[in-house]
Amino acid sequence: MTISIDNLEKLTKYLPMLWQGLLVTVLLSLLTVVIGFVIAFALALMLLSDVRPFRHLAKVKTDDINRLKRLEFISRFNPVKLIAGVYVQFVRCTPMLVQIFLIYYIVFGFISLPKFTFFGFIQFERFFPGVVALALNSGGYMSDVIRGGIEGVDLGQTEAARSLGMSKAQTMFHIIIPQAIKNILPAVANEFVTIIKESSVCYTIGVQDIMFNVKSIQSASFIIAEPLLMATFLYFCLCFPTSKIIQYFERRMRASDKR
Length: 259
Prior knowledge:
Layout: H1 5-10, H2 15-47, H3 65-75, H4 79-93, H5 96-107, E1 117-118, E2 122-123, H6 124-151, H7 155-163, H8 168-198, H9 210-221, H10 225-258
Antiparallel strand pairs: 1-2
Helix pairs in contact: 2-4, 2-6, 2-8, 2-9, 4-6, 5-6, 6-8, 7-8, 8-10, 9-10
């Protein structure tokens, strides 16, 4: 397989398809990060929750040491944290491609989505399941980042807020979370770069991103290598400047912390 200038010149007529794929990839990534952040935030709160419906069992008096241990174990049971933990482990331990197929063929196999196009070429019934699948995956990964950011806030902040009469919810939303967001923003921005690359698997369910259009160009032109090089160039042009912008803001944030 050779790469030639002639083949690249032949592909110039397909450039509008690549620009359409570029737009779809950017929209897919932006929506994924926004929705994924909301999911991750909810999961992080669930992982940090202290919902123990059987906590009263820890106060049961008994001389049976084994029974006492069982009661203490049951009293620590947190169904909310368990559900969030199972979800995060499922996302981490299964391939992205499998998750996309599960969402598209099984979940949305039972849901009838409206069939229409926006921007003239993006098919909603394929684009939306792709966003949902990517967001659910991204939320599972980002939840640990957000949880770490919340836990990284100095415990003295919580104690000071509680001493002023603020409730747990008020302390969390007015004191802890504003400080945690500053810590997690770089990680969330880096997740955007990751999603740009991982969104390429959505072509398997017909989402018209860069890789979908590259496959279409290969089928129409019978040229294999050059379309892949063009896709590589487009992904690089998306990811490299974005990562540099993120690094710039990270340096600015670190500099402001030192003042």
